[in-house]
Amino acid sequence: MKVLSPHNTLGIFLSANVVSWLLLLVINLISYFALSQKTVFSIDLHLKGLLLNFFFVLVFFYFSVRVEKLKEVDFISMLTSIFITGLISNTASLVLQFVSTTLAVPPQTPQTIYWLNVIYHTNIALVTIFLTQTFFYWKRLILHQKSARLLRLWTLFEYLLLISLVFNFFEFGLDDQIFIFTMLILLLLGLVLSGNLKWVAYLNAKEKWQGILLLIFIAGFNFYFFRTILSHAATPILTTDLTHSIYILVMGAFVMFYTIFSILVIIFNLPTTAVFESKMEEILSFQRLAKSLQSGGQVAEVCEALIDTAVMSIEADAAWLDYYDLDETTQHTIYRFIESDEVYKIRLAMHKIRLRNILDQTFQRPSENIQIKIQEAVAKMGYETMQIVPLAGHETALGRLVLLKKMKDGLDDEKRELINTFVLQASISIENFRLLARTIEAARYKEEIKIAQTIQKSLLPVSLDVNEHIDMRAFSQSAYEVGGDYYDVFRIDAHRFILIVGDVSGKGTSAAFNMAQMKGIFHGLVQLDYDATTFLQRANQALAFCFDKSSFITATVVYVDTEKKELQISRAGHCPTLYYNAEERAMQYIQGKGLGLGILRHDDYTKHIENRIIHYNKGDVLALFTDGVIEAQNERREEYGYERLQQLIEQNLHKPLVLIIEEMMHDLQRFCQHTSLSDDHTVVLLKLKN
């Protein structure tokens, strides 16, 4: 089903209005000349009332649709539109009134009476059009910033006004109680609605004077139409008496009420217009600054918007703004209507009266005494008023704004507070920029950590099952996002393999990347089938070229030969290896001298390492670990220690290696209690079989 557009709807209403008016005119002329009998219940009276109501309703809905379809119309434009309608309708009515007065001179012929009724019904149309258009424009003004209660009250008023059209079927007048009672209710509602004049507050001084002038004319037009209705009521030859229509009387009275109230309220608001406009300008300045801050992408753009808004708001004669970049160290300065040389002279003048630190105070505003001294200093430069406002974030210096005026006492408390508000908003925006930069940096760091964690996981072996004669289990946990502990196992042939446990100096990402370099070097050296001592010597030489001088690695290398049942253990500055001899049922730490890889960077490194050879038996256990285990501390700053670790393993030797490691981790957590581990901790257990 096709929906009619507002334009087509208006066309239909306009055509119907013309037709209904012509029918009203014709039926009234026929009624008069036929001298039909007029009784309260006569068909003739009801027919005339029906046609009159039909005309009123069509005009009502025509302007309802026309005014409602207007989107945003300013208040003065509304008043101007009503003024133009009133001017045209009143001018036409005056012309018709002149013709009517001429025709009313006796003797009156039927032709004269005919034309007098035509003129009178034309006046009815003009009155209805003017009042109805004004009625709906007043509706727009009343419902400006409407509430639910106000909307319900207006809807009730409209419905009751339309219901009052029923009285046009009868000849009730001011002598009838029901007529008076109904009209008083509608007039009371109209008075209540006439008190809604919020739109007046949005007019500036010029618009208020324009509004007063237009409203006076509108009131005059309305008064003229009322006088016309009353003057024609006593004329017997005119067939339609509008004094019997509550609809027209109430609508006219309501239009007059609201017009007079509007004039009075505008007049009473004239003295406060300047203050209100000043406040509005402050709000607009605040909005402009907020918009600039939202669109600005850099600290410099925010500062440019701040100084421009501040200068415009208080009409400053000169200003400058010092601000720090996101690095919080580089200072920049923006100048407005002042040169850098003049700013330097002002700073120098303040320096001479020992106020050199005032322009560097970031978190404190100058006291009253200091303000007086400031005025004395800048007065010599031709400025009588100076305001210094610091830009500060959360305990962070952001900059300062300096405003100058040549007028003495050129800034009142409200203006100073306004500038403080501008600066506060700009400071928040700059602080947000810094927080955003830090957030981006943190996100980048997290991404780097994620990559490093992936690399670290890939560096550790997936499986430790390298030989059926060996049972090996490991556990490693980082104290930070990425750790530097490392362990790996390399198979040389069917009977030989190398086990390495290491600890890279440092923490986090750098330690993980150093660990990656270490693994690459170890993988390369394993292929050359060196003994443990030579392996560490070559590894030291390679790492000396890869690492910076502040980085090094501690490691323990264990060569296992299951055919010879032999262990070769070399320690490069790492923790001692705990060895359990099942045949002797004895456990001891294999010390041996050793120096960390990358510390000593010449050929004498071999003098600082020792290779221990051990022939193992069935059931022997080897425990390798990093210093994060034995150096873990509790709340009393006591270390876990070598002895505690040895006792724990001795007490659990009868258990599988997996359960021994679980018991070690539980015991370590119980020892540390609520103290978090400050270093990575890794444990590798190796149990030797036949």
Give the integer mean of the pLDDT values.
81
Annotated CATH homologous superfamily of the largest domain:
PPM-type phosphatase domain
Span between N and C termini?
Answer: 94 Å
> Strand portion, in percent?
5-15%
Share of helical residues: 40-55%
Q: From the structure provided, what is the oligomeric state, counting identical versus distinct chains? A: single chain
Write the layout of secondary structure elements.
Blueprint: H1 6-33, H2 43-68, H3 75-103, H4 110-142, H5 148-163, H6 177-193, H7 205-233, H8 246-269, H9 273-295, H10 299-314, E1 318-324, E2 331-336, H11 340-352, H12 368-379, E3 385-392, E4 397-405, H13 413-459, E5 470-477, E6 485-491, E7 496-504, H14 508-526, H15 532-546, E8 553-561, E9 566-572, E10 577-581, E11 586-590, E12 611-615, E13 621-625, H16 627-630, H17 642-651, H18 657-672, E14 681-688
Helix pairs in contact: 1-2, 1-4, 2-4, 3-4, 3-7, 4-7, 4-8, 5-6, 6-8, 7-8, 9-10, 9-13, 10-13, 13-14, 14-15
Short description:
This protein is of the alpha+beta class. It contains 18 helices and 14 strands.
Describe this structure in words.
The chain has 690 residues and is of the alpha+beta class. It has 3 domains: 75-275, no CATH class; 296-436, 2-Layer Sandwich (Beta-Lactamase), CATH 3.30.450; 460-688, 4-Layer Sandwich (Phosphatase 2c, domain 1), CATH 3.60.40. Helices cover 55% and strands 14% of the residues. It has helices spanning 6-33, 43-68, 75-103, 110-142, 148-163, 177-193, 205-233, 246-269, 273-295, 299-314, 340-352, 368-379, 413-459, 508-526, 532-546, 627-630, 642-651, 657-672, and strands at 318-324, 331-336, 385-392, 397-405, 470-477, 485-491, 496-504, 553-561, 566-572, 577-581, 586-590, 611-615, 621-625, 681-688. The strands form 3 sheets. The protein has a 5-stranded antiparallel β-sheet with strand order 5-14-13-10-11. Strands 6-7-8-9-12 form a 5-stranded antiparallel β-sheet, covered by helices on one side. A 4-stranded antiparallel β-sheet has the order 2-1-4-3, sandwiched between helices. Helix 1 (6-33) packs antiparallel against helix 4. The longest helix has 47 residues, at 413-459. Mean pLDDT is 81; it is low at 32-43.
